[in-house]
Write a structure and sequence with these properties.
This protein is an all-alpha fold. It has a domain of 156 residues. The structure holds zinc ion.
Length: 267
């Protein structure tokens, strides 16, 4: 289609348009594209792309095709591979960011955390968290504006480090982190540096797990604000992160080690 890599019509669907299926823009007698009808619905770029597709000579019904599989069938594996590819394509990470090696990923997968939190780290790394900025980039939102402070675009960095309420969460947590000390460090780089700097000891691993619990609970608090109209409350988020982590550790029979550290790794 118009945008070859995504196989999508880029024209925004006009309201009140009655055309719903492909066969409705194919002439019923000569079995060719109805150019006049197509041009009245989509942009010239999309129209030209559609006209370049040969119409099947067989009289087949419309069907959903998964473009990323040679047989046109969706599989979990092909969906996963495409999601990874899209995450890389949509990435707007700072150019100074360094990629994580297999060693760092092994470290993440071995952390004592629920799978959803490890997946959350994966989404942060791949800039695949559904922040308003990312949704706008994918044309799934009307604004990039942070739904909490309404003063800046909601990037992952803004969500976790720059929004005033999340700064209060980090500082009030056991980690005592001052986000302003992180400068322009991206969340992904900060995580990576923490893994390298103090991920070797069990104590360091417990600090990193606490970091991820805090980040996750900020994300959940933001979602509750956006979707359930709950007020963001830094104290409540701090308490929830602590409670949920302790509860998880209790189910694993692991003692909860309070992590007191100033997590500033800039070197
Ligand atoms: Zn904000």
């Amino acid at each position: 289609m118009g945008e070859r890599e995504r196989f999508r019509v880029q024209t925004v669907r006009p309201g009140g348009n009655s055309v719903l299926k492909v066969h409705e823009v194919i002439h019923p007698v000569n079995k060719q594209w109805d150019e006049r009808k197509i041009r009245s619905i989509v942009s010239d770029v999309d129209c030209d792309a559609i006209l370049s597709i040969p119409v099947s000579v067989e009289d087949k019904d419309d069907a959903l095709i998964w473009h990323h599989d040679s047989r046109g069938c969706y599989t979990v594996n092909s969906g996963y591979q495409e999601a990874v590819k899209q995450a890389h394509l949509g990435s707007t990470l700072p150019s100074s960011s360094t990629g994580w090696s297999a060693k760092e990923w092994k470290f993440v997968w071995n952390l004592n955390l629920p799978p959803k939190l490890k997946h959350f780290v994966w989404r942060i790394y791949h800039n695949a968290l559904a922040t308003c900025q990312n949704l706008l980039a994918k044309r799934c939102a009307n604004t990039a504006c942070c739904p909490v402070c309404l003063t800046a675009a909601e990037s992952i960095e803004h969500l976790l480090f720059e929004c005033e309420w999340s700064k209060r969460v980090w500082f009030g947590s056991n980690l005592g982190l001052r986000c302003d000390d992180l400068g322009n460090l991206s969340v992904r780089d900060w995580f990576g540096q923490c893994f390298t700097s103090f991920g070797i000891s069990n104590w360091g691993k417990s600090v990193i797990c606490s970091m991820i619990w805090v980040a996750w609970t900020i994300w959940k608090g933001r979602n509750d604000h956006l979707f359930n109209h709950c007020l963001v409350n830094p104290e409540a988020i701090i308490a929830k992160a602590k409670h949920d982590e302790a509860e998880f550790l209790a189910t694993c029979n692991v003692a909860s080690a309070p992590a007191m550290a100033i997590l500033v790794c800039t070197g």
